[in-house]
Design a protein that fits this description.
Undecaprenyl pyrophosphate synthetase, 47% helix, alpha/beta, 6 strands, globular
Length: 253
């Protein structure tokens, strides 16, 4: 172990020790960004970057558990990503299928697939559903795996489902419009029944949401990290928690 490792370890322990446990987020959402750029910087193929990113997920979930987080949402693939060239998309979908299956095999977390699964290849959608189903009885932390996810698409899907549900009860469009509330739509989101994310983390230095949890993140705190996702370290996560704990959340007031 070199002196850099010793210094890093001491700093990491200090940050962890100083975190106020009473101010930890209940729900953390993470945009796992930078896999392609990580690979390019190393002169490697894109698939190697996606695989390195997939290999990091279990570490993150363990860190979240240690911090007392109850819900985690991971954005693995956007609806925009589905438009990528097939030679990149096919290996990426395979990596995601295997990563989710591996998470399910650990038997530690309750997995929920969120996104427009109808946009995915049938084999991929089936694999993701089967992996999540194997964790149905797991009482641990809930992990939302966002695949084929887009914030605008989610809202459109929620409104569509809400209209169909109420129309099936015999309500007219005039009746629905007359008493429509924010809660009516929220009840049909992919993450319905869960608390909105307290903290949203994006890696790779980009400082925008890109459509991630547009509805749910209205009152979230945001933390942008320069590290590419495969390089995201425990100390980076602790810094995000420290930043969150130090903020005064006014919830729009």
């Amino acid at each position: 172990m070199g002196w850099r490792d010793v210094v890093y370890g001491a700093y990491e322990r200090r940050v962890a020790h100083d975190l106020p446990r009473e101010a930890m987020p209940r729900h953390v959402a993470v945009m796992l960004d930078g896999n392609r750029r990580w690979a390019k910087a190393r002169g490697a193929g894109t698939a190697s970057g996606h695989q390195a990113g997939a290999d990091k997920i279990s570490d993150l979930l363990q860190w979240c558990e240690e911090a007392g987080v109850e819900y985690v949402t991971l954005w693995l693939l956007s609806t925009d990503n589905l438009g990528r060239a097939q030679e990149e998309l096919a290996p990426l979908l395979s990596i995601i299928e295997n990563a989710v299956a591996d998470l399910a095999d650990e038997g530690r977390w309750h997995l929920k697939i969120v996104g427009a699964l109808d946009l995915l290849p049938a084999d991929t959608a089936r694999s993701l559903r089967e992996s999540a189903a194997r964790t149905a009885g797991v009482p641990g932390m809930t992990v939302n795996v966002a695949v084929g996810y887009g914030g605008r698409r989610e809202i459109a899907d929620a409104v569509r489902e809400m209209l169909r549900t109420r129309a099936a009860r015999g309500e007219s469009i005039e009746d629905i419009a007359a008493d429509l509330t924010v809660e009516d739509i929220a009840e049909h989101l992919y993450t319905r029944g869960q608390p909105d994310p307290d903290l949203v983390i994006r890696t790779s230095g980009e400082q925008r949401l890109g459509g991630f949890l547009l509805w749910q993140s209205a009152k979230s705190e945001f933390y942008f990290c320069e590290a590419y996702w495969p390089d995201f370290r425990h100390v980076d996560f602790l810094r995000a928690l420290r930043s969150y704990a130090g903020r005064h959340r006014r919830f729009g007031t």
